[in-house]
Amino acid sequence: MGVIGVQLVITMVMASVIQKIIPHYSFARWLLCSGSLQWYRHPTEEDLRLLAGKQRGKSKKDRKYNGHIENKPLTIPKDIDLHLETKSVTERDTIALHYFPEYQWLVDFTAAATVVYVVTEAYCSIMKPSQEMNISVVWCLLVLAFAVKILFSLTAHYFIVEDGGERSVCVTFGFFFFVKAMVILIVTESYLEFGLESGFSNFSESAMQFLEKQGLESRGPVSKLTFKLFLAVLCSLIGAFLTFPGLRLAQMHLDALNLATEKITQTLLHINFLAPLLMVLLWVKPITKDYIMNPPLGKESIPLMSEDTFDTMRLWIIILLCALRLAMMRSHLQAYLNLAQKCMDQMKKEAGRISTIDLQKMVARVFYYLCVIALQYVAPLVMVLHTTLLLKTLVGSTEKSLAPSSSFPPIRYLYGVIRSPLSLLFSRLNSPSSLNLSSYERYSSSFIIFLALHWTLSSMSMYWGTQN
Questions:
Q1: What span, in angstroms and rounded, lies between the C-alpha atoms of 169 and 172?
Q2: 268 — pLDDT class (breaks 50, 70, 90)
């Protein structure tokens, strides 16, 4: 069956769902507007005037007596007895939120792409097509492109502000992540299971064979140093984009812990916060793989599971951690919305007066910034999840690392033999046997590690700074 077949039908059906159904039944809108999130409404000027014991005078003398002269704003004491009114987030409230269309599109498109991926994987596992490209790869790449584009647009706002120090923070973290990526690339394969050396050699050899058969002379696509430099620059950019999402996550984690009263909720919050670090440790061989493949059980060393099963379990752990992060999203967003009341409590401890306009802005900006916070929370999650799905699909083309194991029967249907688009393209051009994609498997694995490590360090730095 060619490309125009079942997979194209699945894509067309999902495109129709995105166009016709999702605008009315939006998963992104349900996450915000299901009634569980409460936001604080800013008080009106009349309410503040009544609390301050001032009335609007009819004459200029009365307005001067009440502290309101011409264009001079009304001021009230900071220690005023003001209680903010709460309200559930509704669909009507989201109209005025900044970046709400971007948030809705990213979340709904990610949900649609995930459904397409699951259905396509089930089809490939059952039918086992041999001459079709896996179209779910295109959906995953689109999700990653949208996530990076949104993170870039959010980061660009920090460079527009002239007075703030956000620009310096982004540049500093970008250089820090560049140096860190260069250091990590020096670590040998015996400690970090990157597979970059073998993957790059395999890719270069296959590319050279392909170019030679086309009558072109080449020593390879790029040198190893150039490739590592490009990878370090890419990781530094991703790290700069994830700087403020990581800092915001750390602050929301602390606030959510203060709100949580049950032990199970606090435990899940801690696991959710440490999830990126746990993802990184899955690829550190002395900590995870060596203990599982060669456990110290007396004189004999009996592996607890096969290498294929371990690779399968590793990807499933990442998917479960991503599901946990999505489940804890409302707890973090509610902790952020409570910043309005927290700012009011802090203001009451200060002396002096504040204008009613400044007080209203202080309360209102928390809610109007909600979708930006939601994007900073969701975008890294989306990138990790769909990079993991890409890793699964590209490894599936090698029929090695993600082959189904008898110890994991519930997930056996997910691991059919899938050809990647690049492999199919090269096979149609010339020789299908001289080129494989094991190198792409290594690159996706490395990207997951770098992405999780960037997210972890930026979150940890804010967490430790707040604790101290």
A1: 5
A2: very high
